[in-house]
Known about the structure:
This protein is mainly alpha-helical.
Amino acid sequence: MKQRRWVAILLLIPILSVLLAFFVFPVSILARFSFYIARPGGEMIPAWVLQNYIRFLFDWFHLGVLWNTIVLGLWVTAVCLVFGYPLAYSLARTQSRRIRGIGITVLLIPLMTSVVVRSYGWMILLASSGPINKLLLGLGIVDRPLQLLFKPQGVVIALAEVLLPFMVLSVMPVIQGIDPHLEEASQSLGAGPIKTFRRIVLPLSLPGVAAGSILVFVLTISAFATPRLVGGTTTQVMSIFIYDQALSLFNWPFGGAVSILLLLVVLLLTWLQGRVLEERGMGGAA
């Protein structure tokens, strides 16, 4: 037993070393900078003060940026869940491995494209004279072009398109693990498809939903290129705000404080979601 434990520890050493070197160590440096005093011109005075955190937490503009980021994450997560769950169910229940393989391949194509190229592609699609508005105008759905570019709505569409695979690939294996005979038994006892889904499939698939939601939410609130290019200057989120503070204003202490606060928000929301799942008896997912 002890030998197996040491083998497991030795196998974990490489990945733990990478995490320590490229995540824990840089974040600890950033956390230390967050207590420094910033001076004009990018100068930092070593200290242990809370003024950078206080400046952010007691300013309504800064709190508004945080709120916009959380709302954006919730919207993208909701869109990915609404469109991704039916797709995950279809791929999980299809009997053809070929169809499932083709579906997963098509689903992964956006991840094979550069984020900058993909963002510029959405800028073309969402423009007032772009293909989407031309199609809507041609079908008579709208009487004037929709303003989607440089708006939060456009950012939601662009981010949902690329993050949809993470939701589908998180939910699909869980649905595959649900015995189809449970659905057949439910329907044979008089339950319709909707009731079967609500009472059988959905509760058993919550671990995948939780994992996919957390993954999509975290990736959304940390996204930078897409909100910057598609959202423009009208979309203020935490990633852009941190970038501006650190590399435009050279205010590393304040940028570091905002980064640490964003990390704490992510950890808090993840913990809360885990607690909810535990209370519902889904401790494994939590």
